[in-house]
Amino acid sequence: MRIFKKGEIVDIKGMGTAQKGLPHKCYHGEIGRVYNVTQHAVGIVVNKQVKGKFLAKRINVRPEHIKRSKSQDSS
């Protein structure tokens, strides 16, 4: 079981073998920030472009569809 904390940056990658809590296809490959953690899902803020504007969208995704982003690792 993966544990996520508020403020972490995660990559969204839908896993077809588990359909519960699957994000919409427009969020596949996006990067977001965790804002809420519940027992079965993780709330993520994602910036989505709609008609030339970037909107902060809040989505709920199950943990099997996300992973920690390596873009912020210091190496």
Overview of this protein structure:
The protein is an all-beta fold. It has one domain: Roll (SH3 type barrels), CATH 2.30.30. The chain is 0% helix and 43% strand. The protein has strands at 9-12, 31-37, 42-50, 53-61, 66-68. A 5-stranded antiparallel β-sheet has the order 4-3-2-1-5, with no helix packed on it. The protein is globular and about 40 Å long. 12% of the residues are buried. This is 60S ribosomal protein L21.
List strands and helices in order, with pairings.
Layout: E1 9-12, E2 31-37, E3 42-50, E4 53-61, E5 66-68
Antiparallel strand pairs: 1-2, 1-5, 2-3, 3-4
Summing up helix and strand content along with how strands pair, one would put the structural category as mainly beta
Identify the overall geometry. globular
Tell me the fraction of residues in β-strands, as a range.
35-45%
CATH class wording = Mainly Beta
Total strands: the figure is 5
What is the total number of structural domains?
A: 1
Quickly list its features.
0% helix, 75 residues, 5 strands, single chain, SH3 type barrels, globular
Short characterization:
This is 60S ribosomal protein L21. The chain is mainly β. The protein is 0% helix and 43% strand.
